Amino acid sequence: MRASKADPLRARLTRGESRSHETKRCAAKTRKGTPCPNRAMTGKTRCNFHSGLASLAGQRGGRRRARYSAEDLAPITPPENSGDVLKVLSQVIGEVHDLRLEPRVANSLAYLSSAYLSALQVADLDERLKALEARHDVLQKVRGGR
Predict the structure, then answer these.
(1) Of 44, 55, 101, 118, which sees the most CB atoms within 10 A?
(2) Under 8 Å between Cβ of 87 and 109
(3) Single residue among 7, 35, 66 that ends a domain in this structure
(4) Which range marks the domain in which residue 55 is found?
(5) CB-CB contact of 25 with 40 (8 Å)
(6) Is 86 in the same domain as 135?
(7) Could you please report the per-residue DSSP string of 14-66?
(8) Do 79 and 62 sit in the same domain of this protein?
(9) Domains identified in the chain, total number
(10) Alpha-carbon distance 22 to 20, whole Å?
């Protein structure tokens, strides 16, 4: 009896009452056909995502905050070396800071810049290797001709 006074929920459950404060699972199915694992909204049969309210709120919020336009951006010339990549990235950082460029676009540009720098390094190493091989061939001819 003492335990039931300390824990009213346990006392209700021992009397057979249900947990009215708990919500049920969402009644919707996922794209795979499995039951949705989320809890339903209070007084509803579906979760926030399957009720359609989340997508509507996201669309409204996205439209309200959109302030990026291509007209406000300075043109970017394609980089030809690592110095050009540095200039492009500094320009991108400034445009993100000034709220002229969407951060997701800047993230894509940074990712592409990283890949471009890697390709530049490979191309530079390839050129250096070819020069060393040519020099080695010349030395072999000189040594073999003696």
Answers:
(1) 101
(2) no
(3) 66
(4) 22-66
(5) yes
(6) yes
(7) HTT---TTSPPBP--B-TTSSBP-SBPPTTSSS-TTTTTHHHHHHHHHHHHH-
(8) no
(9) 2
(10) 6
Each residue's pLDDT expressed in tens, for the chain with a length of 146 residues: 454 456 665 665 555 545 555 568 888 888 888 999 988 888 888 887 787 777 666 665 555 555 667 777 888 888 888 899 999 999 999 988 888 888 888 999 999 999 999 999 999 999 999 999 999 999 998 887 55
Query: Domain check: are 75 and 141 in the same one?
Result: yes
Whether residue 101 contacts residue 94, with contact meaning beta carbons closer than 8 Å, is answered with: no
Q: Which residues of 22-51 are buried (b: 16+ CB within 10 A; e: fewer)?
A: eeeebeeeeeeeeebebebeeeeebbbebb
Neighbouring residues of 100: CB distance < 8 A, sequence distance ≥ 6: 68, 72, 73
Q: Are residues 50 and 77 in the same domain?
A: no
pLDDT in tens, 125-141: 999 999 999 999 999 98
Structure-token pair, residue 73:
């951006």
Q: In whole angstroms, how large is the CA radius of gyration of the chain?
A: 32
Q: Are residues 93 and 127 in the same domain?
A: yes
Say if CB 57 and CB 95 are below 8 A apart. no
What share of the chain has pLDDT > 90, as a percent?
33
The residue written with tokens 């291509």 in the block is 70
